[in-house]
């Protein structure tokens, strides 16, 4: 009887020390709300895609090879984040930090290319106020870029937490998993942007 009581007490202690977390499920719910946001922006672009107001069209403006490079950089960052997650499950902090640093650099490169594109379009007089087509384009692409920027800040925070932790525990791995879901989600959204916005406007 005493052994059963001790076992129950120990089990209760473990549960209190490592309570079940629903953060990953909650983050899936958040991603669903983000899906609604981007679906709305895609719908607006679909309606405004041919409202040029006498201004330039996608064929006149978009540099597909440059956007393809931008796409490749972001997709590569998704692969490198996958390597970071492999290191996290193996509890290798150095591996995680190394691949997160590479992922961060690729994410920054993506944003630099995107900002250069925006700057070039505005210099050509093709800013968001030129036509409904360009307004919807800037709204959609810049919203995605803002998400990438947020992901990069989040990544830095997690890197600091990994450095401070003596070893990678379940809490750190769970946080890395949530960011992994977010980062891969942004890749999927960008593939839709590349296909629907860029290629759809040029073809």
Automatic annotation (TrEMBL):
<dbReference type="InterPro" id="IPR033946">
    <property type="entry name" value="Ubiquinol_oxase_su3_dom"/>
</dbReference>
<dbReference type="InterPro" id="IPR035973">
    <property type="entry name" value="Cyt_c_oxidase_su3-like_sf"/>
</dbReference>
<dbReference type="InterPro" id="IPR014206">
    <property type="entry name" value="Cyt_c_ubiqinol_oxidase_su3"/>
</dbReference>
<keyword id="KW-0472">Membrane</keyword>
<keyword id="KW-0812">Transmembrane</keyword>
<keyword id="KW-0813">Transport</keyword>
<comment type="similarity">
    <text>Belongs to the cytochrome c oxidase subunit 3 family.</text>
</comment>
<dbReference type="GO" id="GO:0009486">
    <property type="term" value="F:cytochrome bo3 ubiquinol oxidase activity"/>
</dbReference>
<dbReference type="InterPro" id="IPR000298">
    <property type="entry name" value="Cyt_c_oxidase-like_su3"/>
</dbReference>
<keyword id="KW-1133">Transmembrane helix</keyword>
<feature type="transmembrane region" description="Helical">
    <location>
        <begin position="27"/>
        <end position="52"/>
    </location>
</feature>
<keyword id="KW-0249">Electron transport</keyword>
<feature type="transmembrane region" description="Helical">
    <location>
        <begin position="181"/>
        <end position="200"/>
    </location>
</feature>
<feature type="transmembrane region" description="Helical">
    <location>
        <begin position="64"/>
        <end position="84"/>
    </location>
</feature>
<protein>
    <recommendedName>
        <fullName>Cytochrome bo(3) ubiquinol oxidase subunit 3</fullName>
    </recommendedName>
</protein>
<keyword id="KW-1003">Cell membrane</keyword>
<feature type="transmembrane region" description="Helical">
    <location>
        <begin position="96"/>
        <end position="113"/>
    </location>
</feature>
<comment type="function">
    <text>Cytochrome bo(3) ubiquinol terminal oxidase is the component of the aerobic respiratory chain of E.coli that predominates when cells are grown at high aeration. Has proton pump activity across the membrane in addition to electron transfer, pumping 2 protons/electron.</text>
</comment>
<dbReference type="InterPro" id="IPR024791">
    <property type="entry name" value="Cyt_c/ubiquinol_Oxase_su3"/>
</dbReference>
<feature type="domain" description="Heme-copper oxidase subunit III family profile">
    <location>
        <begin position="25"/>
        <end position="202"/>
    </location>
</feature>
<dbReference type="GO" id="GO:0005886">
    <property type="term" value="C:plasma membrane"/>
</dbReference>
<dbReference type="Pfam" id="PF00510">
    <property type="entry name" value="COX3"/>
</dbReference>
<feature type="transmembrane region" description="Helical">
    <location>
        <begin position="133"/>
        <end position="160"/>
    </location>
</feature>
<dbReference type="GO" id="GO:0019646">
    <property type="term" value="P:aerobic electron transport chain"/>
</dbReference>
<keyword id="KW-0560">Oxidoreductase</keyword>
<comment type="subunit">
    <text>Heterooctamer of two A chains, two B chains, two C chains and two D chains.</text>
</comment>
<dbReference type="InterPro" id="IPR013833">
    <property type="entry name" value="Cyt_c_oxidase_su3_a-hlx"/>
</dbReference>
<dbReference type="GO" id="GO:0004129">
    <property type="term" value="F:cytochrome-c oxidase activity"/>
</dbReference>
């Amino acid at each position: 009887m005493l052994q059963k009581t001790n076992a129950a007490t120990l089990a209760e202690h473990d549960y209190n020390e490592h309570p079940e977390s629903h953060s990953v499920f909650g983050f899936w719910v958040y991603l669903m709300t983000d899906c609604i946001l981007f679906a709305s922006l895609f719908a607006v672009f679909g309606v405004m895609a041919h409202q040029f107001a006498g201004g330039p069209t996608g064929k006149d403006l978009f540099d597909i090879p440059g956007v393809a490079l931008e796409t490749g950089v972001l997709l590569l960052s998704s692969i490198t984040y996958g390597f970071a997650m492999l290191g996290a499950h193996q509890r290798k902090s150095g591996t995680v930090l190394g691949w997160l640093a590479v992922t961060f650099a690729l994410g920054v490169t993506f944003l630099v290319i995107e900002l250069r594109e925006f700057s070039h379009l505005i210099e050509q007089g093709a800013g968001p106020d030129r036509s409904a087509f360009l307004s919807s384009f800037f709204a959609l692409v810049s919203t995605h870029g803002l998400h990438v920027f947020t992901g990069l800040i989040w990544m830095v925070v997690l890197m600091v937490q990994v450095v401070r932790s003596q070893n990678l525990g379940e809490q750190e791995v769970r946080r890395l998993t949530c960011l992994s879901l977010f980062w891969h989600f942004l890749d999927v959204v960008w593939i839709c942007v590349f296909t629907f916005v860029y290629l759809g406007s040029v073809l």
